[in-house]
C-alpha cells in the first residue's frame, strides 16, 4: 500500500500490455489481499447493474476443499477485473515492467473469477498461511459497466468445459479416473477399445466405451460415491471382475478376435454401450455382496443373456422409443434383468420399479 497524490493506493508488481488498442496490466497479488480488494456483494446490486453472474454458493465448498487439501499442488487461474478509476503504472526501467498503483477507493468489478475469490476468502479462514501465496490478476482500466458486462459475456461465451472423459484422462488426483485409465491400458476388453477424450462415440468409431463410462461403471461396481476413493484391494477386485465378465461375454471376445467389428457391435448390442457397462457394474456390486466366494462361477451365466437390441426384453428397459437411454431408471431396469438372469434377489426399490415396469408393459 502506497500513499499517492490522490490518496492511498494498492501497489502490485505488474506487466503492462495493449489489447484491442487499450492498456491492460497483469499483476501479482497475495491471496491475503484478494478478499479485501475485490469485494463481491451480489445482494446489494441488481443483475442489470452487475458485471458478474450470481454467485453459485454450492460450488464454493469443493473449491475450498481443493485449496485446503492441496496447499503445495493447487492451480488457480488469473482473476480478470475492471477498474472504474485511473491507475498509475510506474516502469522500473525495463519496458513493460513496473508497479501498478490502484486507488483504494476505486470501484473494481470482477469479470471472471468471483467463485475463485469467494473460495480464497473461505480457505484463508481455515488455512491462513495460504495468504502468503500469490495469484495473477488481469486489470482492465476505466471500462465502465456496459463494457464490463460485455467482457463477462465474451469471456464466458467461448469457454468450453472439457468432456468428462478428457477430465478423467488428465485428473491425476481422482482415484476412479486413475483406475479407469489403468484398465483402459491393461484390462480386456478395454485395451484399445476405450475412447479416452470424447464422451460419445460415433457409429463408425473403432472404440466401444468412453473413459467416463468406465469410471462410472467402476463406481457402481464398488458402491462408491463421487468423492470416495478406492483401496488397493478394491482396485484388484475391479480388475478381476471385468476380466471375468470378459470371459463370460462372447461378443466382447469376438471383437478382440476380429470376428465382429466395433461398429456392428455397437449397432446391434446393448453391452457395447454405457448403459450396459453401468448395469454390469451394478450387477457386480450385488453379486460380490451376495456371493463373495463364488461370484466368478455365478458370472458365467452371463453367456446366456441375449444382449441384442432386437430382444423384446430390453424394450422400455434399456431402450426408450427405439433408442438407448442412460437414465438412472433405465440403468436400474437393465440391472434388474441381469440380476434375475443370475438368480439374484432384487432390493425393495428394484422390485417396486420392476413391478411398475411389468404393469406398464402389460397395459
TrEMBL record:
It comes from the Bacteria. Pfam families: DndB. This is DNA sulfur modification protein DndB. It comes from Psychromonas marina.
